[in-house]
Each structure stands twice: as C-alpha cells, then as structure tokens.
Amino acid sequence: MKSFRKELWFETPNRMDLINITREVEQALLESGINEGLCLVNAMHITASVFINDDEAGLHQDYQDWLEQLAPHEPLSRYRHNKTGEDNGDAHLKRQIMGREVVVAITEGHLDLGPWEQVFYGEFDGKRRKRVLVKIIGG
Ligand code: ZN
C-alpha cells in the first residue's frame, strides 16, 4: 500500500468564503500515482471546513446566509468564546455544522464523485494563511 500527503494553503480575502478545491485534490491524486484507494481531505483549523456539495452560486449564498443566521459574527459579546480575547466564536460553530473532512473513493486514478459532487473549502475566519490536509492511501 502506498500513502501520499499534501497540504493545500489558503488565504481568503473575506471572513467567510467557500472555495471549490476539487481540481487541487485531483492534482494531489495525480501526484500520488494511486489508482485505487481512499482520499481524505480535512481542514487543519477549527474555524474552517471541508465539505462536498454542488458548485452553484445561489446555493453558496444560501449557505452563507443560513450560517450567518445560525451564528452571526456580531455582536461579538454573544459568544463566551470571545471572552478569551478572540473574535471568532461564530466561526467555530460554523465549522462544526459544515464538517471537518470528507473521504472520497478513488477509482481508476480519479475521485469517484457523484454527478454534481464537488469538494469545497469553507473558510469562516479568513484573511490569514490556513491549510487543508490531503491524505491518500491505496495502490
Ligand atoms: Zn477561537
């Protein structure tokens, strides 16, 4: 069995951004040389997510509106976590509901995704360098 590890780095311009990273994950898979196996993709930060869904602009705005209704960024005093001096209490909650990681099957050297499935990085406390881990195992 082979294994392959790669970090993808991001620095988003906004506090909240959703980025399609399917091409970057496919590129990592190509570099791994693995044809059959599993690919784990996870955010390495507790205020960011990796998830799979449709690459559709209306849906992405719906996610952002929904998350902001569930856990508005302001007022900062709403969150006990912000009493630590941080301002990202909302981002921890947004990350939790959007998930930490995805696992995708690898078949014949490609991500075995459903017809509309795409892999996304969800950033909820952006404007700084953060990373995603891609770990691929198989043969
Ligand atoms: Zn925090």
From TrEMBL:
Q: Which InterPro entries match?
A: UPF0047_YjbQ-like, YjbQ-like_sf
**Coiled-coil annotated spans:** none
* A Pfam family per the record: YjbQ
Q: Which domain of life is it from?
A: Bacteria
User: NCBIfam families recorded for this chain?
Assistant: TIGR00149_YjbQ
Annotated protein name in UniProt: Secondary thiamine-phosphate synthase enzyme
